[in-house]
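Revision sheet: structure tokens.
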Amino acid sequence: MKRHIAWVVVLLLALAGFQTAVAEGKVIRYLGRSATFDLANNPVMASIEELTGFTLECEALPAGDDGNNKLMLLMSSNIPYDIVNGFPEMYDRLLAANVLIPLNDLLKDAPNLMAAVPADSESWKRVTAPDGTIYGIPQLNPTGGTVYTIVMRKDILDELGLAVPDSAEAFYQALKAIKESKPDMIPFTTAGGSNWDEWEYSAPNIASAFGVYKDWQEQEDGSILHKAMRSEHKDYITYLATLYKEGLMDPEFPANDRATRLQKFTSGKAAATLFGGNEGPNFYSTIESMLPQAEIVYLNIFPDANGQRGVTCVGGLEKICMIPKTCKDPKTAIAYIDAFMANFQQLYIGTEGVSYTVENGQYRPIMPAFADFDSVWWFIPAVDEDNVFDYWQARVRKNEEVERGYADTFALRTEDVDAIIPQFALLPVTEKYAKLNTSLSQLWKDEMIKLITGATPIDQYDKAIEKWRSAGGDDFMAEANLIWQDTH
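Predicted:
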């Protein structure tokens, strides 16, 4: 009740403010996703206003579900925002609510934007309706597709005379040997807490070993099949259940979050853990401080029975920029976006010789000046798709640990690894698909954890899948196939 009252107060204040802020000159009323910095005292905003000639009035949504709910409240209240910039799921909600204006005609007056995100870019698929109407501006994830893997204590493997595991079987045998020789150590820890996803209750290495690194498997007839329906996925969950039953997986993994699993590894409590390219900060220095004798190794993506290796990377669209129907002057809004994109490089990384240098074709930050651009991600309406990956790498070069974590895991994307982004990341999902995906996601994860931990016996796997199907899984698969057929 208190939360709802607070939202009403915020809403009334916003309405009062916007009623007095008449659209004079080039003022852009901007609503963005949650922010982790002070909007009121931000150097990026000053640079944007100087280079574009527009004045910004910015508001950040709360994080998580609170942000989604407040977004819908604000949109239903007809507050005259010019631009809304949020996650793809926010776009799905606003599109379903019919509060977004078509952009096709406006984009004709945005040459800088269209040069940065060309008309033939795959990114536009996600924001284009079946009739060709475009309702958003896609913002491609700039990281190039980061990878998660398993990191192990190589010094322990060496001590036990074990080779670095390169298969699911070798990994299992290594964990058994560690448990036998070091009964007080957790062989493998991972996470099942509130901020986890598929790769966080297992690891992509293992999913690859069973050929289920894709959520959807293409069939010979052109249809797609959800991994829940594949026998290989049952084998995969059975493998994880075996690890758990035999004490080779952290017994606390259902409650672990990301910080907990990393702490268990860096403190010496665990011999292996999941590790992502964005998890470098303080990871290596903590190990050096607490475990000076430790040597670590990243496991390659495991091959399946046919020798194929594959991994789903972090990728797709990071955000989608939208113009709501409450916008008083859509032409001014698109003009601002185009002006931003005309200055994208300078707004994203600054000025050469001042905030960055170019060495051997690599952008490298000059600190502390480069830090002024740390929060630009919140403001950008799109990215220069041809160059943003190169620009973005300057960010990981600010810190040796960040650069090491990213570079080491990205190197696992070798020629013999099928590295993909989530298959629906760049496809125009329907309202039905989005709702089913949301409602089924937690159910799916809960059922898989029950199977892995033995709360549901593994021989009840098929019943767990039937529960998922009856809760909407069949409709979900049917809707996914309709989208797939329309876009392939």
